[in-house]
Amino acid sequence: MGTTPTSEVTSRPAVDAAPARASDVLLVEDDELVRYALRRLLLGARRPCLATSSVEEAQQLLAGHEPSLVLTDYNLGGRWTGIDLLVWMRRSARLRSIPTVLMTGDDPTEIRARLVAAGLGDVEVIAKPFEAVELIELLARLRRAAA
What we know:
The protein has one domain (25-146): Rossmann fold. The protein is built from five helices and five strands; from the N terminus they run E-H-E-H-E-H-E-H-E-H. The protein has helices at 32-44, 55-63, 82-90, 108-117, 132-146; strands at residues 25-28, 49-52, 69-73, 100-104, 124-127. A five-stranded parallel β-sheet has the order 2-1-3-4-5, with helices on both faces. Helix 3 (82-90) links the parallel strand 3 and strand 4 (100-104). It is globular. It starts with 24 loop residues before the first strand and ends with a helix. Mean pLDDT is 88; it is low at 1-22.
């Protein structure tokens, strides 16, 4: 696992959505086409969505916003991983209870072990590629569990 991100964030918010509402999903995905497709899928499932491409941008959004769920990729192509973002969130009393899903194209068993080692054994993992219905069902299950 990479170095844990600090509270420093970039000054440029590269966000693909309008201002946030309380019932939205924060999507963190560095691949522009995947981010676009997932955002459309979420919007089609009536899940308002903020979409960003990095841990730093996600931190900036989370500084002033509390989404109902965070959906992040593991490999974000930058200095930090999705696990680093989730560790950072768990350090915040305000953010630690937000349900989280980690997407990965890597071996899900290995990623699950990394999550457990980081104290994140309760984080849901979804292996890429996945079917749209698989993600929507997972998000619906998490919504029911949070209610």
